Amino acid sequence: MTSVKVQTEQGYRTAINVRQHTVYADELINDGGTDTAPTPMEILLGTAGACIAVTVKAYAQRKGWPLTGVAVELDMERIKREDYPDYTGDAAFVHEIREVIRFEGDLSDEQKDRLHLVAKKCPVHLTLENPVFFVENQAAVTDANL
């Protein structure tokens, strides 16, 4: 997988470099940012939505289904473990991502049902649903290396 490099700029504005592309993140003004770009959490949700849309579209194309467009709306809420009765794990918080997916095109109800199942199998969706571990590689980095 391609490496992603992130560098802070002024304040909380951050450049995210992926191959030849640069995406920016910032924080809201009331959180100390300048609101010149989406927040990292907004980008996370956008990434999940994009993955859902692309996965569903690719599946429908392989099947030859008349899907002409996909619209995904996502929002997220962070909830304390004790306030989320369905959670029995040890994490301090549960992050509930709510999604609305709309399919455009002359699709049958069965096709739409199948596409909703396929949406849950996009790589980002699966990553967010399963344990993720960050492994820190300690490196001697100097300002000259940046």
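Second entry:
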Amino acid sequence: MKPHRMDGVSLTFGLIFLGVAFWWAISRVITVHLPAVGWIVAGALIFFGVIGLLGAIRSNRREEPALVPVAAEASIATPGDLPPEMHASIVQELLDDPAVKFAQENPEDASARPRQD
């Protein structure tokens, strides 16, 4: 999941639901007789839930413009002022195994050392 910017609406609804859960927890310890408020809170939560569902369903129906392919330039860019041939030889040298190159350049040193795998 990649991070995203804070959404004020989501934060507000999260705090409302946290408040309702806190109120419920307190009402389990302390007896409070407010049935009318309970129905209002339940109705409001259902209403906001339906609005959230409709918003989520509607947001998926947005039509995105069709992507048009763009023709790319056929030039080869190399870093710095190097010609492409020199750049390719440097990359090839970096990809080659240095132990093989050393053994080819110094056959007497390579045979004297035991090979470690």
